[in-house]
Every structure is written in C-alpha cells, then in structure tokens.
Amino acid sequence: MSVRIGLVGTGTVGGGCIDIIQKHRDDFKRHYGVDIELARVCSRTPKGAEAHGVGHLFTSDYKDIVNDPDIDLVVELVGGTGIAHDIVCDALRAGKNVVTANKALMATAGEEVFALAEEAGVEVAFEASVGGGIPIIDPLKHSLISNEISSVLGIVNGTTNYMLTRMNEDGMPYDAVLAEAQEKGYAEADPTADVDGFDAAAKIAILASIAFNSRVSMSDVSTEGIRGIQPVDLKTAHNMGYAVKLLALAHRLPEGIDVRVHPTMIPLSHQLAHVNGVDNAIYVTGDAVGETMFFGAGAGAGPAASAVMGDVLEVSRHIMLGVPPIVGCTCTDELPIVPMGNLETRYYLRFVVPDRAGVLATAAEVFARHDVSLRSVMQKGTRQRDAVNLIFITHTAREANIRAVLDELTGMDDMVLADPTVIRVED
Ligand code: HSE
User: Fold this and answer.
1) Which atom of ligand 1 is nearest to the CA of 203?
2) Label partner for 221 (CA 20 to 30 A): which of 23, 25, 334, 395?
C-alpha cells in the first residue's frame, strides 16, 4: 500500500518537496517502510510541475485533489490566509490529513483548523511554519513533552536578522541594508511582514500555543519591528555588552502568558546574540531539560522542504499503520495574555532632538514625573546639523510609564524630531 499525496503549490518549497520525493522514495520505503506516491500536483500554472518533471500530475483546480477519494494526504504550500484557508479546510472536511507550512493560517485560524481535523479524525502537521528547516514544533510536542516550559525566545525572521547583522558589521544605514536584503532575495519588494515583525509574531504565536498548552493568536502578540533601528543603536548596545536582535519572546508568568516581538538587547554572553545573518534560532527553557537551543536555516527550498517532508513521512506512517491522529490540538488550558502595559524591564530609548540648552533637562523632568528612573544618558551626533541623538538607559520601568513618557515627549513642540527608537533589554 502506498500513501497518496496531493501537493498544492509548486513554488520554491513545493518544488523542493517534489525533488525530495523523487530522490528518496525508495529510501523511505527501505528505512521506514513508508511508501509515498505523489499523486496530483496543483498550482495556478503548470510551469512548476513541468520544471520538476511531474507535468503529467498537474491540475489547476485544488478541488481535483480534495475531492479525489484516493488521495490520503494534502500538502498545502500556497501560504497566506486566502485560498490556502479554503484548501486546508476543504481537505480536512473531505477527511484528508494535512501538512502545511502556513504560519499565517495556523497563527490566525488554528482553532478552526484543529476543530475540523478532530471532527474528521485526521492529522494536521505544520513543522515548516516556524524556523524553516529547524525542528522545533515536533520537539515541543514530543521530545520536550514532560517539561513545563517557562520561556521560548526566538530569532525567527531571517530577513531582519540579516539586516541587523549587516548594520552591526558594516555600519550600513537601515535603507541601504534593506535594499541589499532585497537584492539578495531575502526581503520582499514589500518588506512589511518581515521588518514590521508580523512574520515573527505569527511564529511566536504558534510556538507559545504549543509550549504553554494555551491558544495564542497572532493578534495576542504585541509587535514592533526594526524600522527605527540605526547603526548608532547597535554600536551603543555593543559598547554596553549587548547585541540587538528582533526577538520573539514568550514567557509563562504567574499571571499568564507574556508574548511579544520587538527589537531587544541581549547580553553578548547569550548564545542568541551570536546567531547572525539569515540564520534562525529558538531557545527553549523547560523545568526538566533546562536550557536548549535549536539552530539552523529559517528559510529556503531545501530547509523548508526538509521540514514539510518530515511531517509527510510521519503522518504517512500513521496512515499506513492505521494509527488515529497522535497529537492534535494541545491547547487545553486557557491562560490569559498579560497586557503589554504591565511589562517591567529596562529600556534603551533614543530621541533625535534639537541641540540646544534645556532639552535634556526637559526630558529628564518628564521621565521623573512618570516614575522612570534613569541609569545613564548619552549624547551622540547625527548627520543633521543642530540635531543630536539623546540616548537614555532606564532602570527597570513599567511599560505603561515608558509609553506615557514617549507620548508626552513626542507631543511637545520642537522637542523630538523623529520617531523615537525603543529597544527593550532581556537579561
Ligand atoms: N520571511 C521569512 C524570513 C522566511 O525572513 O525569515 C519565511 O518564513
């Protein structure tokens, strides 16, 4: 008996999966006793299928796959929450097992997807939705199952990690480094999902849901991106013993789940501080295992196809053995999301201000009035005449008070000349 696969989406990752099936089908049979057969391939045009030698399996209508009674498993590699939502939900309604790489779908409609899977008695696997080729969902669901996870910290967006690395190494300004990332094909023409942190927010929502057994959706994640970061921030942080990373963080607190994405200062002594370029890493702390780090390529045809095919093989094995879905939805608890305003941490705040008497004194008075204690203040030049960077490092302060300081200072006439840069410190 073979497990028949219907693949929807023949782009970079889909093509990588077709290649792996063609190359390793016999190995899979020999090593695992699992025979998978690519039965149908769907895309808008036949180009991808033809390029990978499976033009004869092509259809442009995904319904040909979900309505085919002989297909056991649908692989959705279209992405997004539009047609991909219909493909996944229709496949589940038709009783097909599903493997997807779709972080946006799982982070926004996970509850619906799992409910449909449970109703149909089939499996949904989504390892490739976070961290590309890095195994992290399966370890959280299986290998680390005996732990109470206290935190998950991730560098889960390769584009922004590349940009921050280049800014740090070469002192390149934000616009130049974004243009370079686009030239190299890391950043999209519209880089919003990456640079504004939404891609990382979807990924940490997925990881937090699994780690804490409680549903976390993308809208629960307080999200800030890297648009405000300039080389001066990286240099100043480095001189203080920190690296700046776009960190996706999820902590289990007594009062609930603290989950956020923002530029973060990490001590240079921490392993995550040394994850550079497009690489990703996820740092998980559990009560039994202690600290563990998962590292690797977060994107690309090979890594993503590796994760997708791992799921395909595992689900196929269950289908062959007639095993009912082993791990479905794990969100059994309903932990509250801790409001961002309650966060207490140290802050790096950079303001571009006019270089004149009284500016520092005015700012210091605003900090004091909102009960934010300052640890240090630095003044650094800018390229603009008569404007300087005023950098404040705070002692531990409450996010709500920092917000009040930012609102008051930015609301003053002739005081703050550009959007302030906020970097939170994770010690
Ligand atoms: N755009 C993502 C990144 C890869 O830059 O890491 C896809 O998840």
Assistant:
1) 8
2) 395
Catalytic residue among 96, 103, 203, 245: 203
Tokens coding 294 = 């998962």
- Looking up tokens 């921490």, which residue turns up? 270
- Distance spanning both ends of the chain, measured CA to CA: 54
Residue type, 251: H
For ligand 1, the distance from its centroid to the CA atom of residue 38, given in whole angstroms, is: 27
Q: Which residue has the CA at smallest separation from atom 7 of ligand 1?
A: 299
Annotation marks residue 47 as catalytic? no
Say how many CA atoms lie within 13 Å of 274 toward its Cβ: 5
Spatial distance between the Cα atoms of 378 and 335, rounded to a whole number of angstroms: 41
> Which residues does residue 186 pair with via DSSP β-bridges, in sequence order?
none
pTM across the whole model: 0.96
How far, in Å, from the CA of 168 to the mean position of ligand 1? Answer: 20
pLDDT in tens, the chain (427 residues): 899 999 999 999 999 999 999 999 999 999 999 999 999 999 999 999 999 999 999 999 999 999 999 999 999 999 999 999 999 999 999 999 999 999 999 999 999 999 999 999 999 999 999 999 999 999 999 999 999 999 999 999 999 999 999 999 999 999 999 999 999 988 888 899 999 999 999 999 999 999 999 999 999 999 999 999 999 999 999 999 999 999 999 999 999 999 999 999 999 999 999 999 999 999 999 999 999 999 999 988 999 999 999 999 999 999 999 988 777 788 889 999 999 999 999 999 999 999 999 999 999 999 999 999 999 999 998 888 899 999 999 999 999 999 999 999 999 999 999 999 999 999 8
Of 157, 226, 280, 308, the residue with max ligand 1 atoms within 8 A of its CB, to mutate for a pocket test, comes to 157
Are the beta carbons of 305 and 16 closer than 8 angstroms?
Answer: yes
According to DSSP, the β-strands at 421-425 and 344-354 are antiparallel
Rounded Cα distance, 317 and 410, in Å: 59
Residue nearest to atom 2 of ligand 1 (CA): 157
